[in-house]
Fold each of these.
Amino acid sequence: MRRKITGLSGTLLIYSFVITSLLIIAFILYIKYIPVPQLSLPGYLANLKNSYVISSIEKGSETIPLSTINGFISKDQIEKMYLSAMLRDLPYLLILIIFIFITGAIILSIILQRQQEKQALLLARQLSHIDDNSGIAPGHPAIAKAYSEIKNRLAANALDYVRLSSYVTHEQKNILSLLRAKLQLSGNSELMDDVDKVVDSLDDILTLSASVNSSDMEIIDAALVCADVCDEYKKIYPDIHFDFDDTANYQIAARELWINRAVSNLVSNAIKYGKGRIEVSVSNQKGSIIISVSDEGNGLDDEELEKLFDYRYRVGKLKKDGYGIGLSLVRHVCDLCRGLCWAENKKTGGMVFYMVFPEALTID
């Protein structure tokens, strides 16, 4: 099977062909335009005798008689005349050859540098997507092998991390459940609230440690999850309103824990920083499930809106801890479920946060 000539080999082949062609053309022009040496003959016989001398040399005559001159001119003398004429113009040929090589080397270095930058950018792009299956493996066998080994190693490390965090978190949740039951029997509601906060934090850790894996997905009803979250937060903040169409389909491919923690973080932020009426709604628009959480607090600048979902970003003008890890978890959940999220300022004041997921029936 023939390999296609590309990249560095193709560039060097073209460079060699061009340089060789230019050198051949230079030599042909040099030989073609060498001036005919002039013999020291009388002016009225110069043209005739020079033509006769040249034709005699081409016929191989050893000596060339010139009746107008005493004696003979040998063939060696004529060849020496041609050699001197060639040597006289040889420096120009050397200068031309040096110019061709220097120019070619500069052009070749520029082309190779651009190809190197292109390959570096391609490799960087492939490495940035090494944790998913959308990246294309490098073409060179050695690089492809190293790329595959690094990818497998990272996947194994990520799997070990997920397993460890899941195991530790579940064990901690079991202990906290027992502790909460004992506190409930003793009637210590304040400590129960603290335990619930720790459990929520552990659920956030489980969600953040999750990776994109179709085997982890299940079909859930987003409206039911949002309703559960609203019912839970109404106990501490009664001004929460939930709106949805009970005839629509709200099934998405996700995990109930992920959606629960994402919506809970949005509602929690709305309670802390939004104030006023909080509205949670779920709708199905053209095969997309849209979850929105709006509040009546202060809006944010456009620059802050762009950074809002970055990991541990803190809004400067907020006196409290800021939106922090909660919104980065929301973005992580959307990435896991092939969705997207963003925030907008409302014209009437306050903010609205959106999460959009593909309907489960439309997923490949």
Amino acid sequence: MRSSRFAISKSGARDAGAISWLLAQTLWVGGLWLLHFLLLPAIAKTGLASLLVEEIGSSLRALLVGLAAVCAGLQVLVLIRAERLASVWRDMRGQLLSVVVAMAASYFVARLYWPGAELWSMFSYLVMAFCGLLLVLQPVPSGSSRKL
């Protein structure tokens, strides 16, 4: 028999959990960094009024923080599926994801109940971005390490 040359038939192909982990991570980590360090400075350079740029940034940040919370929640589920529940919180990935979810919650709580908390909102946003950067450096969870 001839062996197939397609990547789908390789024995080392990733499972659905690893693929969803990478996709969710790319969406939220890339989105946070792209908005703060590329898109908003580019919009500011176009000559728009500074209040308009701040309003665009505020709206887009809130959307991306919500996306980050949902994607981090998905990553927690993938991590729980790949590892035992008790060992997830001792793992660096689980700790980083719990910080991201906590910072997303604090971002929205501060935005809702503390209207003048721009510095806290920016702090929460940047902590999430740097936790995402550290999470990118961690290995992707695989279901093969799970003990049944």
